[in-house]
Amino acid sequence: MDFALRWNDGHFGPRKFWVNCLPRLKFWNPAVPMIVNRSAKQDGPATMSIYFRQPTATAEENNSSSSSTATSSSGTTATPKKTILTGLSTLPLAQQPRSSVTGEFPAPAPSEGEHVVTIDMKNVHSDRILEEFLAKTGARLVRPTADEEVEMRQVQERVERGNADRIIVKAFEDEKRKKQAMLEKIKKEADAIKASNQ
């Protein structure tokens, strides 16, 4: 991903995609390098470059016994295709490009056997970026299982109960502080009366 540091001038959609979707992409595709290159150029482009490499005949023969599925989306899995990792992911970790806030690692040119799919993200909503990503990569959304849906409902119920409990505790604490302030005021008035009588 290449986009500006600040969200204005059409970079809000890419920023939101980066915050909301990219972590899920990385969760489902831990072996796929994902580089975020941000720069100070607000008028610059906002693009996402997705690199694909078709397997060679030798790699295809070696993998013929086990079909591989390429995963590549926010909670998404690509349709079953024989795909291998790109050249970047085969480099040692120290030599791989990394994310940058100074525009240090712009999208590299595709290596031999690779092709790049580019998505123009400038002035585009994050949901629309995700839709285009799904369409261009052939990835599919991973839906939660029945157990996961039950767990999510339980978490939501706990959050709602926690919010209600916080309101009750805040009201109790406010009342306690109010009484404490009133007692301190009465004590000060009593001390002032004692001092004036002496």
From TrEMBL:
Region Disordered, residue ranges: 57-112
GO cellular component entries: mitochondrion; ribonucleoprotein complex; ribosome
Pfam hit, one: L51_S25_CI-B8
Coiled-coil annotated spans: 169-196
Keywords from the UniProt entry: Coiled coil, Mitochondrion, Ribonucleoprotein, Ribosomal protein
Bias type Polar residues, positions: 86-102
UniProt-recorded Gene Ontology molecular function terms: structural constituent of ribosome
Compositionally biased region (Low complexity): 57-79
Origin superkingdom: Eukaryota
UniProt main location, coarse: mitochondrion
Listed InterPro entries: Ribosomal_mL43/mS25/NADH_DH (IPR007741), Ribosomal_mS25/mL61 (IPR040049), Thioredoxin-like_sf (IPR036249)
Record-annotated Ribosomal protein/NADH dehydrogenase domain positions: 6-140
Localisation per UniProt entry: Mitochondrion
Presence of keyword GTP-binding: no
Protein name per UniProt: CI-B8 domain-containing protein
Organism: Microdochium trichocladiopsis
